[in-house]
Amino acid sequence: MDISTAVDRLGSGDGQDWNQTIAAAAIVAASANAPATRKTYQYSKGEQVLVFLNLLNHQNRADDRNDFTISPVNEHGFPAGHGKTEAQRQGPFEFLICVVTNVHFDEDEKYYTVRRGDTGSEQRADSSVMAPIRDVVGIEMAYRAARRTRSSEAEMSTRQEKRLGPLQQCAKSMKGCLLWPVQFYRNEMVPLYVRGRARVKVVASHLLHGDTGYSFKVEFSGINFFVMCNFIYLFNDVFTLSFLPAKFDFKSTVVGLCVWIVLILELLFEGLIRPKDYDELRVSDRAFSPSTARNINTFHLCFESVALLLFLPNFPCLFNQEMCGDDIFFSGVYGAIHAITSDRGSEQAFGRFILGLTFLRVFSLVRHWKQMWLSHVFETEGPNSKVVRNLLMMGADKSGKIKRSLRRSKKKDDEDDDSVDDQRASSSSKSGNDEDQDLKNAANVGTALMIVNSHRVLVLLLVVVVIFPMIFSARTGNDVDNNLVELLQANNLQANTTADCDYLYAAVGAWLTGVATSFNQQKYLINEETAGTPVVWAQLLPVRCDWQRSDGVITDCDSYFIDDDNACGVWNGEADPDVASREFFADELGVRIGALQEYYASEEADFESVGNATLFLVKSINDHSQSIASTFRSLFLLEISMLLLILFGLTVMRGDAGRLVLEPLQRMLKIVVRYAENPLSQSLGKTKSSSSKKSGRSRNDSEQLGKFETEQLINAIAKIADLLRKCWGVAGAGIISSNLARTKDGKTVVFNPTVPGKRVYALFGFIAVKEFDMLLRNLESQVMVLLNDVARVVHDEVYRWALGDSGQCNKNLGAAFLMVFRIGDFSEVHDRQEKATNVVFQDVKQKAPKPRRRRPSQSGRSGVRRRTPVGSNGTLQLSSLPGIQTFADRALLGLLKSYAGVHRDDKLLTYKNDFRLTAGVGAFSVQIIYGMDAGWAVEGAVGSEYKIDATYLSPHVNMASRMMSASKQYGVTILLSQAVEELLSKQVRSQLRHLDTVFVKGSRVAQRIFTYDARSEGADFFLYARPGDQADLDAEAYTADVWKTDQDLIAMRQHVSEEFMTLFRRGIDYYLSGKWKEAIDTLKEADNNMIRSVIEEGYIETDVSEYGERIFDQNATDEEIVRIRAQYGDGACKNLVKYMERRNGTAPPDWKGVRALMSK
Prior knowledge:
single chain; alpha+beta; 9-stranded mixed β-sheet; 5-stranded antiparallel β-sheet; 54% helix
């Protein structure tokens, strides 16, 4: 695939993952190979170039695609069909002419901003997709081609149509109508066919090769076998009695026996694998943990044992096949016969009880379903697990949200293991395992709800299918069969003489006609239309009429002219009364013995004359096979529906419990886990921004309590955790983390805030509000509002511009703030430095030849091992860390951005006109000063169980504080120590000023101090204000070019000229070398140069024209001139000059270019 086709596919958005993947791979490959196939040029601003068109179109989401050119050009600038030479006409045509508008320099690459020749919009372009064009004719042709767009073509077509006459327009319309099917076929159907054919080809290839995502692996484990056996045991007897004839009873019983043995063994195994302390676990807080719930409980053990005992009535069939299907006590046939034919309510209730107990076999399937849920949520996924979960788990817990969290934790642990050494990996793994255990413990609630609900549902099922039917049938009975016999017996007794033979003949015929009809006409039974006769044999005694058979059998179609095929098929060829029995007819008819029931009605009465006592008898054998089959079909459907209803109901209840209870609980736990891992992470829903300045409506919505109690708990926990983070800051992170994660035997131990501290590396910044004493006296209680407004701006900007989330406020000390830019723990930084060193020299080690044996040196060592640069006290030289320059640059930038933010914040600007501070002249503005140092510190808590403070203990923290104090002495906004200057990039260091080399109080280490010139006078910071979201995007897109292009930085340094920097550097050189006379003159000249620049550039708000050149007189005594010079001159120059003039402009004899700062 060529890159043009690839970009077309990638931009098509057809939603086909395979197509998108192939296209992206082709673009990456083409971009990677571009430097090898085309010479890479260096382009300058304003130069006309050719850029790969399809890639520009794919990256462009702002312009209308109709404005894109439809006529790309070749590398000579000519579109298809143009050009004089063969080279000018040769393709490929894949470029668009553009103009370079800007050149960017990233850390290790150079890229450009170009303006498109068609839409005029600006886009990024790399040299690998650019080509130079020098030919004037080619440039002209390329611009003409760029102006050919769909929009321009449509406008041209419209203009041409307007010039056409009515007949020509009509002819054109007709031509368009005739050509539309052809165009539709060519433009729509053919591409659709091509894409569909390619899609089918790729999918077929994946299917045939069994690629991931297109294969389905079938696993059949032991648990699958047990589940299958439970299904067979549940439906085996019911299915046989519903749909299979009697000849399959023995085979069904054999199958049931095999399954029964397997299930007996399963129960035994389940009992054996239960922990020895299972009884203790059941009453402990781990009763519903997944590991405990996996074992079979007493509830299921008892009911499933009863379900297995129900198979015992089938055992006689195994030893005597003639007993298969007999109504053995407690068998299914026994229960059905009593439930549908018994004339006594108690027996009918007992029969329904036996049938209801069949549902006990559902218990084992429900148990396996629960175990499957536990397995899928808390165990590693296997093949098809997602498919099985979707099919059987019905999207429980939103596609296994708990499990994905556990997998993410596990993956995070693996990444941590790769990034640090064995000791660090062990610690990370332990932390990850603790989080996994916490998440599993949180799921105990879900497990408990599922188990308790399943037990209640199963008990409710038994009540519905067993108890209720027994209650309703206890007072009723089915005496239809007995009534039939008694009806015939009554007619038999009525015809007690031979003269009544005709009456008896009519009565018997009517009776036989009634019992011979199909069951759909027999209202006393529930059967199907195709059912046979319910009476298979009947006998009436005594024999007294010539139409009677000698044996008294009356079921004879020939004698009574019965016209019913079903009845006659049974009655013809019946046996004599001597052999007529249930067993005989069951064998002859192929029905179950238990389905045949005998009914009697006998009574002695006088016959012909009084005193001639004769036995009047009616006997019938009725077939209830269809009634039994119909009963068990209903039972079969009921079992399926109840099983599905149970599983669906439990899933719905578990889903509701998860949505309303479990998920909120898990969110609570995740909040705790997250704060245990990273206590400095922002609160839920808050991004790294100062965009907390949302509308009042949004703020009110976010502060409202949740609809449910769990949501209220979540809000409360989130607020408490957020309060901990805000109150304890970065230094308290270890306290929060260690205490939230401290567990013993799965339980959280007693809170202990005084945990040991740890050594860390960081940059420290002290920030203070100037003239705080005056503010406190004048504003009184309102000073808190001012300080909070300053803190809001400072904290937002520091957090926004610091790398990652390293910028945090540790302490708010009244008028000062301690900001910490945390690099990392002592061991963590060392480990990463060691790993980075190994990565850098990996190729060197691999390519290095095998060293030759060297002669041992006199000291006994064969060489010196290269180590990570460390200081004399074992601390790491921070300048050796990879990426530390960007880290330090962004830390300094955060402080400088906060300076600009303070001077453009609407709330802080209101103090400019506060009468309490300005006395009505409007001369006040909030001013802040900064001090920075870098190094190590001990991070931890100081205090007791009554009160603790999270802080940093280090000489570097003290040094940052002294830098801040010294900034007032030197009259600058910010002072940086030498340690910070060494960490900054070359570009930032070039904008610093070396002010002095000093001994700070309490230290004899000479240290150079620097400043970044920042002044608010004459700087209109409000013009460069950015919305919070946009400022966040600027910070995320940070590059080193910010130091050249950022308007805030340019504005705060606008008073510093190159001439001033030259003079100041020269004066500092004189000062440090001991040439104080020359230093004084040079620094005074530099001071005047700054004042002149400020006045000439208009950065001064006061009109100084009336003072003329007197404004530059350093000996002037006019108060206004002195004030203006002090405000707009350079404080560092004045401080150094004053220091040297106090000593008569002569350096001491022991001067070494260092002076002591005596104040803190």
